[in-house]
Structure formats: structure tokens, C-alpha cells
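dude i think i finally got it to work??
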Amino acid sequence: MQKRFAALLLAGLFGVGLTGCPDNPYSAKTWTKKLDEPREAERAVTELEQLGDPSAIPALGEAWEKQGKPVRHLQVIISLARPLTPEEAKAKYATDYEQTGRKASWNEALPYLTKALTTVDEANPRSVDSAQKAADALGEAKLAEGLDALVEIASKPVTKKLIAAQVAAIRAIGKFDNDKARAAAALTKIIDREPPAHPRTAKDKEQGRALEEKFGLFLGVTGAAINALGDLRVGSAAPTLAMSMYRTPELFVQIRRALVATGPSAKEELRKILRGENQPVNQLFKDKRLDKYCGDKGDAPPDQCQPVSAKDFYPAVVLGDFYDPATSADLLAALKRPAQPVYFMDDQPSPNTQYNAIFDALRKIGAADAAAPVRAMWMGGGAAPKKGEAAAPEDLNTKILAISAYPFLTRDDAGVDELAKIAGDNKADDTLRQEAATAFARLSRDPKDLGALEGLAQKYFDASEAKKKEAAGKPKTDADAADKVFEAKKKEVEKAKSDLLKITHDNSKTAEDIKAATAATKKIEDAFKEAKKVHRTATAPYKNLENAAKAYKGYARMFQTHIARIEIAIRCKQDLQCYAASLKLKPEEAAKNNAKYIKDIKDWTDDEKKGLVEAGVERAMLEIGKAGPKASGLTDTLLDAAKSDVRLVRQSVLLALPKVAKLPCTPCVAKLDAAIKAGEGKTTLGDLNLETTMLRNYYAGGSPAPSAEKPAEAPAEK
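look at this
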């Protein structure tokens, strides 16, 4: 800055010597006069930007129009129109405003910003770039007069060349919280547009490529409008967003975020869908046959169409994000409908049904009055299979899902003994047993139950040892013998390759010599391929037994790790601070706490001890969540822990927070934003970062605090 000042001062003095009447280099007028001079125009724009004087905006605007609307001019106009704090002015060396700051001058820039949008030429990349920058600026300015221009470009037919500017305009419309009604109406019209034909309906590859491009552009613009509508948080947007779940299911993640940010009106809209009372959705399903899959092209005969459950699946997912116990009745009622795939793709059903979404929502809400109906679905619901018969797959899956959700609902120990029996039943399905063991550990607080888990662990340790002993006999002998043969073959082929390389570099060898050596090496390589197959077959029994031994040990550790869930409940009892302390527990401390219950704790690895910490935290957060508002004093502690990179820890904290933190909760939004930022780019936390975003939107959306149930008393100790 000092060098620039000196140079300008020298230039000024030189000018005095020539004319006696120099132009002031610190005056915007000096440089606005040069905007039309070809040799000076570029420097003039730079000097005006550095001076930071908004009075130059009209002259820059005129030059922008005369000179073919260069992007650089518009950038400087936008820069000069922005307000500056004294600190920002100092950082930009805008010395005239270092003391007072600079007020906004968006009104002066408005004519040029709107013209950049209304006269955009999609065949001219520079014009499109200008429109994009103008849209961003108008979103920042939020001038009512600029909204029409944004709506105009956003509403144009979507093209590949124009889409960047259109998305920018849509994003800007979402910032007009000072004119929500008009902005929301414009965004709603964009979202309500009829989708083009889906690429999967294409008759051939060429048509498929064309449809894919058109459909992709449609999704890009519609997705931006959904995000923008969510940013506005307008209750009247709920019906449009609810319909869009079915019109554009590809955008469900964005729609979900927007619905939760929209607030209570969205929740009621979703409840009506589950109850079958949302007439527009009902009509859409009737017109489009969305409750059936009739092939990718929709041309299968009616008797070959398959039922799907999208109508229940999508609202169930989002209702869980509102954490309202009053919605549990609607979710439970939806469980009376048969489990069906959510969708089909290439004639294959989705891996999940609507039951996955419903049980997950019930788990998140944690309403005590849902416990008994859910318990009946795994313990007493439906006809039991006859002796010697397995449960039907759909019944088995339902039981697994019900058991998984149950510990988050119940406020007593009903069903604990039954869960222990399922976990210990060697004839039961493995997944069912594992889920039952986890649920058992999430609920029990009786020291006697620790023995059951140790007993289950010991069974697997015994099985592991049995497999090791079996492997150590003939399978190990055969494997060792096979290894020796294989190593010899491996050395043979390596030597052959080495010899061939030497021959090819030996000038005394003829072409025939090289050809013969190559053929011999090829023969040895072919024999080695066969040797690999023989070796694989000979060593398979030993490797299979060794892998089985490792797997059994893993199962044993799983049951032992469950002990940490019960241990913390025994140790902390009803002390919420004790449960909260688990968030800072070190692996060695967790091992020490569990040492009297886990016999071989001294043999555990560091990673296995970390599992004890995670199991303890999960149970602790479950207990804190059930305490409800009584644990509100722990809100900050939980919010700080929401940044954890450990999946089970963050997941458990996110389940507890909405039951503990009272609404409104301003710190919740800020701290969850920090947690989301901390998780960005971490692929292992992708889905949990989404869940963190949903919880953040729940607090930002201003939903009323759940009040359908009083905090339940913790069950009495046995």
C-alpha cells in the first residue's frame, strides 16, 4: 500500500509539472472518465475496485453495457455495492471507510444486476456467467425489485447452457426471507412442474442418453428449488414438498431436509398421508399407479404388477425426524399393513420395506406408549410357527426390527427374560439372536444377567477352541504339505522367468534359443496355474476351520462387549452425571470397570477395549434420553459429543438429544452446525452427518417441544 501511495504521489507531482492541474488518483471520478478509453479501461476498473467508492457504480454500469457486458465490470459493481464493516474495509485497504464502514449500495447496482438476468444469452458463456454472478448478488441483497428478474430466469425452460445461472437464481430466491410469500410461490411452481420421461422408460440406448440428460437437468433445477424452499421455512410449502416425495423420489434426501426445516405443518401433512387422508397424494397414486411396480417401462400387464410401499415409507422416515410422540399412533397403525418393497429396480425388489422406516422412526421418537405394541410384535404378536417349523421370512424380519426398536421405547424390564432366551437359543436365526442379545444388554440392570452373557461368550470360545483343535490335526498337516509343494513350484517359475530374462539379454543367444526358452517358461507358468488350484483346494479345509475359529471368537467378544452396557447401568443407577461421564471414558478405564465381569480382560486388544467404551456410551445415552427434560442440564455436554467421529457414540448422542434439549434451543443449531462441519468429507460418517443435519433442521424449524408424555421414571433396580 505504501509503495502504491508513493507511486501515485510521484505521478501526481509529475502531472503538476506538466499541466499545473492534476487529476486526483484517489477520486473515483478520475478513473470513471477513463472507462471508455481502450488503453486505460482495464486499469480504471482495477483502480475503482481498490478505491471502493460506490459512486462509481453508474459509470461502471454504463461501460458494462457499452462494452458487451464483460464479467469483470459486473464483478466490480457487485463488490462496490456490498456493505463493509470497518474491519473489512481495513482488510481491503479501503481507507475512506476504515473508521465508519461502508453502507450497502445495492439499489445503485440493481438496474445492471437485473439486466444481466433478463437479457441473458445462453449461447454466450460470458453472458451466462454474468447472470450467475448477478443472481448470487441479488440473493445477498434481497431487494424486492430484483425478485422478479430472478423468477423470470429460473422459470425459463431448462437447458444445459443456462442451468448454472438458473440454479444460482433459484438459490437466490430461497434467501428472500423478507418476501417469503412471493419467493415460495415461485419456487413451488418450479417444483410442481411435470417431470420429463424417466430414462428407464427408454426404448434404446440413444433415446436413453437423451432422456437421461433431460431428466438430469430437471432434477438439478428441481433439487435446487426444494433446497431453497426449505431455506425459506414456509409452512404453506408442506403440501408441495410432500407431493414431491413421490414425483421425484430421486431427490428424497433434499425433500426430507426441507420438510423438517418447514416445521409442524409438514409433520401434519405427513401424518395425513399415513392415515390415507391426503387427497392430492391419493389422487396422484391413483393416476400414476404409484402403489404398483409394472416393470421399468410401466408396461407390464396388471396381473404381473407388484405392490410397493413408497406411500408409507417416505413419510415414516421424515416423521421420525420430528421426534413427536403423538405421531407414534400413526406409525403403529401403518405397521398393520403388509410389509412390501419400497421400489423395484431392474425387476429386483428393494432390500428394505416400509417396516424399516417405521421402526426406525419409532426408535428415534422413543415414545413409551409404543413399547407394548412393539413388544407384542416380537414376543406375543401373530401365530407362532409350529414345532420344528421356521418362522416365515417376513415374520422373522419383523421380529428382528421390532426387537431392535424395543429398548428405545420401553420404560421397564418387561421382555428382558424373553430376550435372554432368544439370545441363548442355538436353534434360532443368528441375526435374531444377535439383535436379541443387544436389546437384552440395552435393558438389563441386574448383575445376575452378566453371567448369561459370559455363558454365551464361553460357548463361542469353546466352539472357537474346538475349531482350532480340529484345524491343528490332519487339515494343518495337509496344508503344510501343500504349502511346501506350492513354494517349490513358485521358486521354479520365478527361476524360469529370471533365466528367460538373462537369455533375452545375452547377445550370444539366437532367436531360436530365445523362442525355446520362452516356450519352456510358458509351460512352467501354465503348470504353476494348475498348482495354485491344487494348493487352494488342499489348504481350504484348514483355512475354513481357522476362519471359523476367528468368527466364533468374534461372536464371543460381541457378547462380552454387551457386558459393558449392563455394567454402566449397575454402576450409575439413576445418576445422570455418571452416565454423561461415559463420554470421556478412556479404554483402559472401561476395561477396569468391567474387569470383575470379564475374565480375560487382560488379553483384550486396544481396539476391543474401545468397543467397551462405545457400548457403555450407547447405554448411557439411552438412559439419559429416557430421563427426558430431567436431563436438560446435560444439553451442552451432549451437543459437544455430537462432533464425535465414532459412529456409535454420535449415533447414540443424536438419539438422546431431542428428548433432552428443550425447544427453542438456539445453541443446538450453532453446535450442530459445528458438528456437521466437523464431519464433512468423512465418508464413514456420511449417513450420520445427514442425521445430524436433520436434527439441526428440527431445531431450526421451530417445531413445538414434544409434550405427549411425561418423563418416565426409570425402572426400579432388581
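Confidence is low (pLDDT under 50) at residues 1-21, 381-391, 703-718.
im so relieved honestly
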